[in-house]
């Protein structure tokens, strides 16, 4: 059906490759690329709408480090396209509700809850203590996204993208419980700051 939609936009195989009656693998690849590059038309019989997410936005999901990390952590069972769809719909929901740039809101929300430091277990004599350590940017974002997804799973909205959108907005508005988690972690780091010289860890 969809090949019929694109048919008027594509030259025939004979026009491209001569008079051969068969299609080689190289020719099939060229046809597939031409199909993907053709304009998307709306089928008047079934009323297929134009996609709400632009190609630029879809590409940004895979090239932007924060978005790519979020998608990879949402992904389950290797279903990356489904995870991308969840993030796309959440960003669209944020744009519709706030009338603001959803990418900026996402970055601001993650930065607000990303901890600067963490603690790791270390042995001191016969006891185990907590030693503070600084986190790099990717580690900070990972901890923030773990907290974010945990909070999303506890929300009551029906759809995942609505829960994700709602939690990101709650963080920016200062009403999310994740902010308290970050404060508790930083308090623990301060309480154990005297253990920073410990080097033997496991």
From TrEMBL:
Keyword Ribosomal protein on entry: yes
GO CC aspect terms: ribonucleoprotein complex; ribosome
Gene3D superfamilies per record: Ribosomal protein S7 domain
Protein name: Small ribosomal subunit protein uS7 domain-containing protein
Keyword Ribosomal protein: yes
Keywords from the named record: Ribonucleoprotein, Ribosomal protein
Matching Pfam families: Ribosomal_S7
Lineage: Eukaryota, Fungi, Fungi incertae sedis, Zoopagomycota, Kickxellomycotina
Organism encoding this protein: Coemansia spiralis
Domain Small ribosomal subunit protein uS7: 63-193
